[in-house]
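Two quick folds needed for the group meeting slides. Do the first one here.
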Amino acid sequence: MFLIPASAIIMEDTVPPMLEECYSGQVDKNITPYEVQTSCLESFLGQMYKNTSTLRLGKEAFAWLDSLGRDIHIRLRRQSRRRNNQYYTNRMRVRKEIRTLSEDEREDFFDAVRALKADKSVAPNQYDVLALMHQGDAVDSAHGGPNFVSWHRYYLLLFENALRTKKRRVTLPYWDSTLDYLMDKPEDTILFTEIFLGNPKGVVYSGPFALWNTPTDPPTILRRDIPGVFSSLINPQTLQQVFKKKYHREILTPTNVEDDANLEYHHDGVHVWVGGEDGHMGGVYTSPMDPTFFLHHCYIDYLWEQFRQRQKRFGINSETDYPPTTDTYHSPSRIMDNLKPPKNSDGYSNSFTRNIYRYAPAPTCKNKCGRAKRGFLFCDRKKKACVSRSRNEFRKEDGFKSVKNWYRGGGKKIIPQSVKNSSPQIGINSVAADTSGFVSKVDARQTRANKAPKMTRKFKARIVDPRTKSRQRRSIDQSFASNNVRIAFDINMHLRQENGNNNSLNRIPYNLDNWAVAPIAITNTHARLHTPGQDHLKNQRTFNITFQTDGFSYRGRHMEYITVDERTLTSESVGSIAFEKPVSGETKAYVRAYDSYGKLCQPSCLVSQSMYKECSGMIKVTSDYPRMYFESYNGASDSNMKPFLKFICVN
């Protein structure tokens, strides 16, 4: 029998007066209730945690970053005045696939990256300062929405400008991972050898970034786990689904409805492929600590630019085609987190590729694989595409004879004559070379001796190469389906710990043991009549209802969503909210729900065994019994627990 005792462990709480006053003060303004609530909530949370810092960086680091940003804006203004001058057009930077770089271009790029890492004029060093820009609020504003492409485009340009302070003519190359996907064994690609990025497995002990210390807490040595389980490099055939679309809303989260057409999903799989279970590339916070990150994202930017050029042929203005969103982190007018002063929508400007850089075409058989060295890429006539050479194929092609120098163990730039003669050698710490002449893929001793970084939030691949399904997956992923509603919950992507505008995610990593889960009920009623201007959403046949829990007694935010079939007039479903366990005292949180159109749902609180009444969504949770929450995610699908909160959504 279900009872609500006097000391109910979940009960309605009062809205803080400061928040209530904010709501009242904006009633007459010409903005929607969702916008009022969001603005007040973010302001309240920001005020509550105003003394916290988002990043562990000093004033000197931010001043250096500001100087890089100023250089970008000066160049944009200068070049915009010269846009019709062919001389300056020819002087634009040209970003190329890394295996098509000349020997000198490749060496200059690696030297510039290493120079940033060695420059301690700002703490901890210039490279790490840039890597840490991917933390804090940027974790959420740069992923899972339309600002994904915009934020990273500007981020790449900052990194490229930093490189050019070390080597004036260096341009950021891209890594076209479709060239490796087409290999029989992509993990044997020439890219992850000491000629390019270093060994693919365990501690990175060879190549230009060998034994790099990374700014994790505690510090760790750079490592990889290629190939990650349940991952994928970019499949060129699946990628074509992106280029069958015309509008950004069709290829970006959350308005995109087809996984294969989602550009960010293609991106996610590569992070998991390189980072795997414990490599830096697999973590949202740690991925830029591996320079592979910048090459990978440069290719994503290349693909986005190809899509924008396609839009131009259809007469679509890419600069104004910013998808609709109710996520405040992805609002077009929001200042780019950690990269201020540009706004999120500024990254959609044509100025970047019109005035600063352009891309050399990706390697194809038609362009002779970008004229890459024979030992790096080749045209596979059966696949009708360029494919990366493997480490063994490189040796068979006498590739060593064509390389002047490269990085062996410890980052020392050498190429012994005996290796040129294709004789197996001994690498750093007496790790024997394999039959390819390169050092072994993994140094097991060093990998065991050095701890892996702690992953508080991982990327998850939604597009998976079947060849990577060989080991049991460890990440937590729950989904429940019914005829009309699909509930999707992924801890890696939807469990967020935030505190409004002053996020300290990197300092307070979530621990699943500290979180409790409670069911909520959602009733959605679909009205036939709808607001003009929403037709582009209505035609998608599905839309999301997001439920968001913000901690008021702790710093944290949990977000989850259900997907509702547009054709269903009424649907009922059960979702989950997560909050910090009330181990001692009480937990206070604010729960709200809204649909893809930015329309708020009305919360109701349970007052008897079967009766609900309208309430604010503000809840107080105690540790008393009988408990109205689950101690872990494992029991969250138990249907016997009555939801305390119920949301009525009408759209």
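Then this one, please, same format:
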Amino acid sequence: MDSNEFRKRGAEMVEYICQYLETLNERRVTPSVEPGYLRHLLPAEAPYEPEDWDKIMNDVEDKIMPGVTHWQHPRFHAYFPAGNSFPSILGDMLGDGIGCIGFSWAASPACTELETIVLDWLGKAIGLPDHFLALKEGSTGGGVIQTSASECILVSLLAARAQAIKRLKSQHPFVEECLLLSKLMAYCSKEAHSCVEKAAMISFVKLRILEPDENASLRGETLRQAMEEDELQGFVPFFVSTTLGTTGSCAFDNLYEIGQELKNFPGVWLHVDAAYAGNSFICPELKPLLKGIEFADSFNTNPNKWLLTNFDCSTLWVRDRIRLTSALVVDPLYLKHGYSDAAIDYRHWGVPLSRRFRSLKLWFVLRSYGISGLQKYIRHHIELAKRFEQHVLKDKRFEVCNQVKLGLVCFRLHGSDKLNEKLLSAINESGKLHMVPACVNEKYIIRFCAVAQNATEEDIDYAWETIVDFANELLEKEQHDELSEIINQKKTHTLEKKRSFFVRMVSDPKIYNPAINKAGTPKVSLDMASPIAAKGSNPVIRTQSSIDHNSWISWPLAFLFNSNDDNGQKSNVSLRFRHLDTNVRPSSSRRNSGAGSSPSPEADYTASVVNVIKSPKKSPNLIRKGLAGSNSSTNSNTNSNNQK
């Protein structure tokens, strides 16, 4: 690609970017792809021969865009804003076109000096004390652009560690540095960003994470008590990281209280992480949130979050740049130059050696919008957040979980964490909105942040309507599921009760037949008369009783009641074959009358023979005795006693 084609393709790219940003609302906020989707769309090896530019751009739209999460989308409300503006894009384009590597003043004087000037501009606008400004007379501080807040915190902790080891080494010159290192203790709030913990891991120092108050704010008293306890245990406090505008709920540590307490602990480095909220301090009405900054040793904020500047652009200021650079300086001969003592070399201010011309885009943004334009942009986002907060407060099913001071609103449905997880999952899966959760005060909350540069009130209203729609559907389903669960539990309980009752009923008929309780329980005897069947006739059964109360029992229990009671009499309990829907009433037999002759079937069953609808299928006793009674007698009894 030569310069002529670059002009053509550059114009096409600008048009593509403009078209993309103008039609973002037509796209899904988050992609509906799975891990590894792109691997199957692209070849396994780079092309050996050059390819046509049009083909490359076609692949951008067909293969890359389907997997992009659109951070500039008006329905994107996750995390914090990702700075983006046309002046910033043009600044990056110019910096990339120049292509300098500004690791030292000599490597590119303009790259170094513009960064120093722009950082002083922004520091003054934020309201930082003079000792943080590099060009202020008598100042030993200054500012630098890093890649992210994580790097700002890391280099600040490394500088604090170097100063602490140096101080301890002077007090204990014969103690190994590794032992001194094991005694160092850093501190932060539980609401601090995870990069503080990562920085401590990289630096091999201990980190004590402290509990904030009910507003997610770290208080001075909490820090003091922890540091005193650790000193009694032989540890050496050396670094405190505070946060103005936490990631979870945009809470503010009490910087003034903490600074006052640290007066009693000389040598402890106080860092202030204001990655998101720090940009808002350019608004005069928000500067009170910065109270206590005079106690800080370092401060960072990210213009690539809330000052319309593209990533990467994280700004760090230090009170004493010598304390910072002494921890990171490495000065080989091939990097030295004749103005080292008179100029700033930013390679000593961070981890990487090579540095891009990042100050150009910040310079372009500050000049294109002016401080007033950036203030208007920040205030607009705060107004949108307040509008969303009012929507939440009007619906009694929801609650606001943070103090809405800037552009972040934390909310949740009244109910369990699981319920809110389901709500957020359903919303994100739809692709209509994108939000992320956080845990604040041991509660699962949903974060809603005003993000898009040109977001409108209609975007906020649409977001709330979408949330309400999903909440209505979820709550209706939850109520239905709860009702179904209650019904199922009742069915299960009823079935268990029926089963239990059946078992007890078979074992003890008094449970379901109070008449048996009144009549008394017959005495069980092994002298039982079994059912018998006559050839060519229906089956009959005989029971004996002397109790004159009518009742019934199921036929398997008839054998248990076919015995004499204590008075030598038989129970007069009628028998019911429930599976045959038949009742049988017994009468006294010759055996009960004391006759010595063998009982005949005709005599024994004169009053108790009944015509049964069908014979029991499982009763081997029915043919056991081979009854040889008269058919005529049986038939006559059957006709006289037939019930069905």
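Slide caption for protein two: Confidence is low (pLDDT under 50) at residues 521-561, 587-644.
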